[in-house]
Amino acid sequence: MRRKDVLDLDDFSAEELHEVMETAEAMREVLSRPIKRVPPLRGKTIVNCFYEASTRTRVSFELAGKNLSADVVNVGASGSSVEKGESLVDTTRTLQALGADMVVMRHPHAGAPYLVARELSAAVINAGDGWHAHPTQALLDLFTVRDRLGSLEGRKVVIIGDVLHSRVARSNIWAFTTMGAQVVLCGPPTLIPAGIETAVAEGRRRRWGDGIQSGVQKEHAAVKVQYDLDKACQDADVLMALRIQKERQAGALFPSLREYSRLYGLTQERVARAKFGALVMHPGPMNEGIEIMPEVAYGAQSVIEEQVTNGVAVRMALLYLLAGGHGGRAV
Amino acid sequence: MVIGSASSGHRAPLLIRGGRVIDPANGLDAVADVLLRDGLVGEVGRGPDGRGLTAPQGARTIDAAGLVVTPGLVDLHTHLREPGFEDKETIRSGTLAAVAGGFTSVCCMPNTEPTLDTAAAIQFVQRTARAAGVARVYPIGAITRGRKGRELAELAELAEAGAVAFSDDGDCVMDGAVMRHALEYSLIVRRAVVQHAEDTSLSAGGVMNEGPVAARLGLPGWPRQAEEVIVARDLQLAELTGAHLHVAHASTAGTVDLLRQARGRGVYVTAEVTPHHLTLTEDLVAGHWWSATASLPPYDARTKVNPPLRTGDDTAALVAGLKEGVLDCVATDHAPHTATDKRCEYAVAAFGIANLETTLGSVLSLVHEGKLDLVEAVATMTCRPAAVFNLPGGTLSPGAPADVTLFDPEREWNVDPHHFHSKGKNTPLAGHFLRGQVLFTVTGGEVAFER
Amino acid sequence: MVAAERPILDADGVRRALTRIAHEILERHQGAEGLLLAGLRRRGVPLAERLAALIQQFEGVAVPVGELDVTMFRDDLQTRGTRSSLQRSSMPQDVTEARVVLVDDVLYTGRTVRAALEAILSYGRPQQIQLAVLVDRGHRELPIRADYVGKNLPTAQGEQVAVRVQEIDGRDEVVLVHQEPASVQAPGVQAPGVQTQEAHSRGTHSRVAGQPGEP
Predict the structure, then answer these.
(1) Domain segments of chain A: what residues?
(2) B214 contact A CB<8A
(3) How far is C71 from chain A (nearest CA, A)?
(4) Could you tell me if residue B47 is left (phi over 0), alpha (psi between -120 and 50 degrees) or otherwise beta?
């Protein structure tokens, strides 16, 4: 992979996504061995720099690094020291001085990993920045869907809920549309970011020029917004529920959890409207009974647990590929 | 370069020879000489024989052949930061930046610490500016005490002390009744009430223009309507009260429309637009290459400004509004910040661009692109702003203050903030090439800046 | 590419060598019981499959065949960087207590085999590990030797051995490739099956703009 960092998926070509997927396949096989540890990152130091609490992502990266025989160090930072902003520059200098080979960064503010990546010679992996991006989550989602459904070409992926505040949704839009799927965003209009449909088209034009990248059918690589979940579920191949933050109610973004759940909760009936064998996904942690019903979350069509398992393999793949030291900086 | 002093005792006459003199207030655009005497404009012309004015005894002469000679530029919207934020800018560094950018008069905003909401604070600024002796500084007093938007400041006393207008800039006067009363009360002293139009309940948390780019970058949006609803409300209040409303940093096409309609029905409203809202768009936030070697990375907080950079449709409407006169003038909204204020997460970074030294170049880019003619461009930075706050200057009429700016409209230069006189190096234009640069700035008959 | 190829084994030669190796394996193990053939990616895999087919033919026993990608165990990742040519490995069954025969096309420095030993051990603890290669070209850098060799081939360091197999290259043959020193080879371009200095590595030559042979 000819890049230094993974900050977002907007600059990933279909070929690059394939490369990550195939490497992740190999990593998943490693995870099935009695001895899950392989040595390619021996002697490398990975610093997990989490400015925001996230046990599952941090542990997933930690396992991924350790399985590849890297030394993994966790750096936590309290929210308060981040508020002022200076600490990010300080931390960057420290990371540089410590000689970290790779930095995995979670940050409450969009774009923070860009600031760090441009100062650091180490590879930077964005483990979630504000509302902006969560590329490894999207890659594992893509991996999980590909594993179950094969090609993404022409598939309909419905992302349900609070898209406005969701980095998972934003990264998944790139991952799925680049692979030729159609993404439908479904949620209350207050939680759909203004201009998201054109945002994707413009971003793609900005990155790839007017010619569409190879392997992507123009008509499929689109994003649509729909407010009616019952309609959105029709003919869907994937239904992905997002976590709803209860605090959003205070900002008058929706009237009550009760109404939210009634309109946008993923129920058995709604899943039944989708294609036979459609997948049910959730990035976790779930509010069961609100955005997803327990019988759906633990039902036959749910791949939520696989998402977690695949997360380690996908992160191993990314760490492995970035360690290549090709140094080609992503623009 | 030499920085002179505008307040030194004896002033030798100064003769500026052979430049293209543009004085829009007098409809003048011709090659002529300008003679400055006793701190005032003495004569402009070619002399009785058409061979130029004669230099008086002891006069200094500047050869201005190939240069444009204009009245000293006037800025209605500058943040000098002193008192209180001297790490960002001081009155001295800010006025040095002003003359380096061709501005001989700047109106400074009261969002200092303490706020310019008392006569004493206004006088402090005037005293310090006189001591610095670089450019003319006209303080703007706060509308409300502490700029908190609740109780009116003593507007009459502020005006008597020398406040040329009133503003809570940086914050919007959100309460409609307070704004109405401020407008009404301003009638006593006939000074403009300058509104920073931002409905903070709509812009809350917003750090860039709401729209596709913000959606993509995951940054909270600051919708254009947050500006427009306040402009619309204030226009109604200005109509109601008959007072002078001045709209600071208009940034949207919608604002231009509202202003046009209001002017059409005779509302006493004036408005300004910043060079960045005229020339830059929100796309910069996603990263931009100025050239092969100069770039703005994504999420670079140097693009963060309030109101935010908008879209190409907005810049087009703003340029049209400026040309048409719906927008009276260009104002810099020079907002210097320290590196620390800007070198951080986008959402956390301070709003603002240090503009004094690039404004002329940015406005001239519109001339080079054929969107404005040179005389119009000069007017938007001289007589038009001077008229808004009824300031002296902005013209080369005999007897006017001897404030003159000389620039080479063709000279190309690279924006290197390290060479700024301002303490604020925060500009998204760093590394960009601008065409048109100030070579001399004369304040009160003295050369205050020479490149 | 200007390169002279000298044939070493033709299709019949390859078939005869594999047949002999299959017999030797059966002889040495007194049957096929507990055997597991692990082909090293890429060309070791079809060779292992063919050995398994021959054993099936001779003994009537289906010997399980595994596929090993040893990339992650290589000792030159630190210096040359990780490769994106990573392929999935697979083991048909538990290797613990099995008698594993690693199968590869060419034995050269021994470093690939060392990596393979480590790789197979991550699946468990076999009773025994042996090595079968189609060609042993010498120049070992590690204390490793093959248990079954199709052809011993003395070579010079500058020469390359190309093993081609039907499944990947469309024909079976072994040739010795001698680079003409005067010729300039296009970077990253090589004949199928040619072993570069490190077996199985894909060309990672950096492209130099303006270099002759640049496509």
Answers:
(1) 14-134+308-322, 135-303
(2) yes
(3) 8
(4) left
All structural domains of chain C, each given as residue ranges with its CATH number in brackets, are 2-209 (3.40.50.2020)
Domain span at residue B94 reads 72-394
d(CA B127, CA A85): 36
Distance CA A234, CA B407 (A): 66
Tell which wins on pLDDT, A97 or B197: B197
**Separation between Cα atoms, residue B144 and residue B167, nearest integer Å:** 8
pLDDT single digits (tens) C44-83: 999 999 999 999 999 999 999 999 999 999 888 777 766 6
Chain centre to alpha carbon of residue B174: 24
Give burial (CB, 10 Å; 0-12/13-18/19+) of B1: exposed
Q: In chain A, what residues touch B219 (CB-CB under 8 Å)?
A: 110-111, 130-132
**For A226-283, what is each residue's pLDDT tens digit?**
999 999 999 999 999 999 988 877 778 999 999 999 999 999 999 999 999 999 999 9
Return the percentage of chain A with pLDDT > 70, whole number: 91
Chains in contact with B, where contact means 3 or more Cβ–Cβ distances below 8 Å, are A
Collapsed DSSP state (helix, strand, coil) of residue B286: helix
| Residue B183 belongs to domain with CATH number | 3.20.20.140
Q: Which of B211, B218, B344 sits opposite A194 (nearest CB)?
A: B211
Interface of B with A in 283-342 (CB under 8 A): 286, 297-299, 340
Same fold, A14-134+308-322 and A135-303: yes
Decide: A295 and A280 in contact? Cβ < 8 Å.
Answer: no
Q: Which chains touch A (3 or more CB pairs under 8 A)?
A: B, C
Specify the CATH class of A135-303 in words.
alpha beta
Q: For A14-134+308-322, which CATH class?
A: alpha beta
Minimum Cα–Cα distance from C81: chain A residue: A324
Question: Which chain A residues are within 8 Å of B340, Cβ to Cβ?
Answer: 85-86
Interface touch A29/C87, C-beta < 8 Å: no
User: What's the gap in Å between the CA of C29 and the closest CA on chain A?
Assistant: 26
Spatial CB neighbours of A130, under 8 Å, sequence gap ≥ 6: A107, A108, A109, A110, A111, A112, A167, B218, B219, B347
Determine the pLDDT at residue A216: 47
Tell me if chain C has a CB within 8 Å of the CB of A19.
yes
Nearest by CB: C81 against A23, A33, A326: A326
B333 is catalytic: yes
The CA-to-CA distance between both ends of chain B, in Å, stands at 5
d(CA C5, CA C180): 10
Instruction: Work out the minimum CA distance from C84 to partner chain A, whole angstroms.
Output: 6
φ/ψ of B205, rounded to 5, equals: 80, -10
Query: The tokens of B133 are what?
Result: 């002796």
**Would you say C78 and C88 are in contact if contact means Cβ atoms under 8 Å apart?**
no
Q: What are phi and psi of C20, to 5 degrees?
A: -65, -45
Work out the pLDDT band at B76, boundaries 50, 70, 90. Answer: very high
pLDDT digits (tens, 9 = 90+) for B308-345: 999 999 999 999 999 999 999 999 999 999 999 998 89
Write down the catalytic residue from B117, B168, B314, B333: B333
pLDDT at C94 over 50: yes
Q: Mutating which of B224, B225, B282, B299 best tests the A interface, going by the most A Cβ atoms within 10 A?
A: B299
Chain A contacts of C121, Cβ < 8 Å?
Answer: 35
Chains with at least 3 CB pairs less than 8 angstroms from chain C: A
Mean pLDDT of A143-164: 96
| Residue of A114, A116, A200 to mutate, interface with B, max B Cβ within 10 Å | A114
User: Which residue is it, tokens 């009429």?
Assistant: B397
Counted residue by residue, chain A has a size of: 331
B65 in any annotated domain = no
Q: Which two tokens stand for residue A136?
A: 């490894």
